[in-house]
UniProtKB/TrEMBL annotation:
<dbReference type="GO" id="GO:0016491">
    <property type="term" value="F:oxidoreductase activity"/>
</dbReference>
<keyword id="KW-0560">Oxidoreductase</keyword>
<dbReference type="Pfam" id="PF01266">
    <property type="entry name" value="DAO"/>
</dbReference>
<protein>
    <submittedName>
        <fullName>Gamma-glutamylputrescine oxidoreductase</fullName>
    </submittedName>
</protein>
<feature type="domain" description="FAD dependent oxidoreductase">
    <location>
        <begin position="31"/>
        <end position="381"/>
    </location>
</feature>
<dbReference type="InterPro" id="IPR036188">
    <property type="entry name" value="FAD/NAD-bd_sf"/>
</dbReference>
<dbReference type="InterPro" id="IPR006076">
    <property type="entry name" value="FAD-dep_OxRdtase"/>
</dbReference>
<dbReference type="GO" id="GO:0005737">
    <property type="term" value="C:cytoplasm"/>
</dbReference>
Length: 427
């Protein structure tokens, strides 16, 4: 089987040294087999190992190959649909539990970085930037909503204050979340993988799960080996393929594009983002950006439904960057790449159990960096028999995309076109 390398991203080019991990060649036995070495899988593995389970992780390519190693690197709290939507959808008890958990993922990341001394350029502070007064009104209600759930590290920014945070004259204001922040996402995944191995866990790379034998003692087959386990955690997200057809029907992979400039130098970098916070705007199809550890601008945005790789990523994203920062007109783009995330119709994550022993979490809908770290903890709790928080997620209603797999892409793209028109005209 040919080795699958990392995509040519800035993150892969600046990744910390990591060992070559073996392919699974024989039969192994374990307590928990985790499918996927992204954040969901690594977070689950860490919590389980810390609680005495034997854990084997199977990765089809390399640690952090998927969205975990390609995303914008922003620590953003809550879910892709905020707690007010959850409150309207489910009962008060479930909403209370999910609301309390909405800010836990970022705390877990910081605990992991501190405990296992992970070098991933962690910086505090994330800004939601409003392009219209209507969006500013939404941020004001979001602040009140989050504060109701005890999240108090928030500050509203008026038009003058946001200029001190980001050198872009498009914004009417914003909200600063000091418990938000940013990281080098691939180095976070590599650090978590090293932590898994330091606790006795095993990670096999280039070892895709090709078939699951369900039953009392489930078996996961790879091209050259198999893992017998008491439990399986399915953490493939947008890269799971059709391994479990009933999960594929309720979700859709989508691509998002990211570019990275050449190093800007201290002076230019500091003039763009003086406090080194990360920023995302409040549009439905949003733009997001931040500085890297070596003072490049990492800028992402756009969504390709159905996850095809666009031919020229720079042509899609560079105009968005120049709209925000016309002063970068002559700056060279060193890297451009795409990565897939998994969208659900409700935009809320799907968590559940198949039979008695196969657990899954998927469908972060573009809000994965913090949620996946929480998901790992919630899945580990469920395997230990503490299912209250797991059940709060598992009971969220989910629906298949209309028209099935054939029509889900055009339907969703049509919906996004409608919302992007609303953004454009400030509706």
């Amino acid at each position: 089987m040919a080795n699958i390398p990392y995509p040519q991203s800035y993150y892969a080019a600046s990744a910390n040294a990591a060992p070559e991990r073996p392919q699974l060649q024989d039969e192994v036995e374990t307590d928990v087999c985790v499918i996927g070495a992204g954040y969901t899988g690594l977070s689950s593995a860490l919590f389980l190992l810390e609680n005495g389970f034997r854990v084997t992780v199977l990765e089809a390519a390399k640690v952090g190959f998927g969205a975990s190693g390609r995303n914008g690197g922003q620590i953003v709290n809550s879910y892709s649909r905020d707690i007010d939507v959850i409150e309207r959808t489910v009962g008060p008890k479930q909403a209370q539990l999910l609301g309390q958990m909405a800010f836990e993922g970022g705390r877990i990341i910081r605990e992991r970085v501190a405990k296992y001394q992970i070098q991933c350029d962690l910086k505090d502070g994330g800004v939601f930037a409003a392009l219209t007064s209507k969006q500013m009104g939404h941020l004001e209600s979001q602040k009140r909503l989050w504060e109701r759930y005890g999240h108090t590290q928030l500050e509203l920014l008026d038009e003058r204050c946001i200029r001190e945070v980001v050198a872009c004259d498009q914004y009417k204001g914003g909200m600063l979340d000091m418990s938000g922040g940013h990281i080098h996402p691939l180095n976070l995944a590599l650090g978590e993988a090293a932590a898994v191995e330091s606790l006795g866990g095993t990670i096999y790379e280039q070892s895709p799960a090709v078939r699951i034998e369900r039953g009392v003692s489930p078996v996961v087959h790879t091209p050259q080996g198999k893992v017998r386990a008491k439990f399986i955690i399915v953490a493939g997200n947008a890269y799971l393929g059709n391994l479990i057809p009933e999960l594929a029907a309720k979700s859709m992979p989508c691509g998002t594009q990211v570019i990275t400039t050449e190093p800007l130098g201290d002076e230019l970098a500091a003039s763009l983002l003086p406090q080194d916070y990360c920023v995302e705007d409040c549009n439905y199809l949003l733009d997001y950006y931040r500085l890297s550890g070596d003072k490049r601008l990492i800028f992402g945005g756009g969504v390709v439904y159905g996850a095809r790789d666009p031919a020229n990523i720079e042509a899609i994203i560079r105009p968005k960057m120049l709209k925000a920062f016309p002063q970068l007109q002559n700056v060279k783009i060193d890297y451009a790449w795409t990565g897939n995330f998994l969208l659900t119709l409700s935009r809320l994550p799907q968590v559940g159990r198949l039979g008695d022993n196969i657990y899954y979490s998927q469908g972060c809908s573009g809000h994965g960096v913090t949620y996946t770290h929480l998901a790992g903890k919630v899945l580990a709790e469920a395997l230990r028999g503490q299912a209250e928080r797991f059940d709060a997620f598992a009971d969220l209603p989910h629906y298949p995309f209309p028209g099935g797999q054939l029509l889900r892409t055009p339907f969703t793209a049509l919906g996004a076109w409608y919302y992007s028109l609303r953004d454009k005209f400030g509706l």
